[in-house]
Amino acid sequence: MDKQSKKKKKLEDEYQQIADKYRPKPKVFMNCIKAFLVGGLICVIGQGLGKLYAHLGMDPVTAANTTVATLVLLSCLLTGLGVYDTIGQWAGAGTAVPVTGFANSMASAALEHKSEGWVLGVGGNMFKIAGAVITFGVVSAFLVSLIQLIVKMFI
Description:
Blueprint: H1 3-22, H2 28-55, H3 60-81, H4 83-91, H5 93-96, H6 99-112, H7 118-154
């Protein structure tokens, strides 16, 4: 490295130290509480919907599927209205973990790229985010099933 590069590197390091000194510290405990409360509330709403659908005469599998579809619909609707993002900024991971977070990520990508057209814009870009989640879910389900099969063989 030449003399000018060393000087630039030193200035960058000094700047980083000063910036780190004044950077606000994350409020980890409070963020965990917010995520727990909002994620828990979403799950309570889902449980309530499931009980409601079961009370209306649906069998447990149909009630569960209808509950997931309702939560996805509500999440997409709230995303379109801009409400879900506001809740997500406040609650953090609490809105990202349940199925509603997945629906929000797909709806956000679709809204962001709608000017590019239905196929290449909406269809192509909303699955860029969802593709990783779907792939991870399928691989995880396969591995859990494989472990369950191995355990059953030896028990």
